[in-house]
């Protein structure tokens, strides 16, 4: 059997479970997973290698109409995912209507790149309703495979993997077989902190936050990490810290435990909160955070 290798770009609207799907497919938690929409900000690669294949998954930000410069930068990474894919996974779910973001969906349909429509969260519906939804997607994309799954329940992921392998081109691996991502540990620990912020705070706060790792020092059995949490306004700083620092302590404790599982070492974590006025519309700050 020839070796198969290629880039599989995962596209879809916010809150359809794209990050969960990628994490389950590769067996590692690389993308932030929360119940909130718009949690993926950067394009993140997850690499799955077998004896005769290597799949380079790419989780992109959710498709949206940008309201500020940060979201415009996020959409640029979505746009680029249309151009450099060997296969596109368009992820939807059993709640989302087939009409959402029709213009972008048309661009996906029009591209000559092979595609699979993945209907996620089928554990939240019944068979009859699922069949109706599958028929709707077949009408929209008659030449495309429609594969229902439940990423969180790991249902039908084997069938999805087999379909991906069928459609991938032959080729040699792009990365060493033991490599899981194109990102470094510093990036993932910042995402762990941001994930805990998304879980802890409500409303606009999580979307006004960015995390920067200022220091990362590995010792024999310990990693010392210094992180700065940036907020967009002065009032948000107090909310992040909480009464007597309780909220920030909760975030730090949860993040440290998850980091220790991810890194396989004890972690000493220090966090500070700073204000970067309206950083989401600042080209300088977006460049500093790696969006531009």
Describe the protein's architecture and organization.
The protein has 292 residues and is of the alpha/beta class. It is 36% helix and 24% strand. β7 and β8 form a beta hairpin. It folds into 2 domains: 164 residues, P-loop containing nucleotide triphosphate hydrolases (Rossmann fold), CATH 3.40.50.300; 104 residues, GMP Synthetase, Chain A, domain 3 (2-Layer Sandwich). 37% of the residues are buried. It has a 6-stranded mixed sheet, with helices on both faces. A 3-stranded mixed sheet has the order 7-8-9. The longest helix is centred in the C-terminal third of the chain and has 18 residues. α6 packs antiparallel against α8.
Question: What labels would you give this structure?
Answer:
292 residues; alpha/beta; Rossmann fold; GMP Synthetase, Chain A, domain 3; 9 helices; 9 strands; globular
Summary of the model, kept short:
The chain is α/β, with parallel strands linked by helices and 292 residues long. It is built from nine helices and nine strands.
| Number of domain units | 2
Strand order of the largest sheet: 2-3-1-4-5-6
Per DSSP E runs of 2 or more residues, the count of β-strands stands at: 9
Q: What is the share of helical residues?
A: 25-40%
- Which CATH first-tier class of the largest domain would you pick? Alpha Beta
Estimated structural class: alpha/beta
Q: Helix and strand string, N-terminal first?
A: EHEEHEHEHEHHEEHHEH
* Assembly annotation: single chain
What would you report as the Rg, rounded to the nearest angstrom?
20 Å
What is the residue-averaged pLDDT? 88
Parts with pLDDT < 50 across at least 5 consecutive residues: 33-38
Question: What portion of the residues fall into strands of 2 or more residues?
Answer: 15-25%
Approximate shape: globular
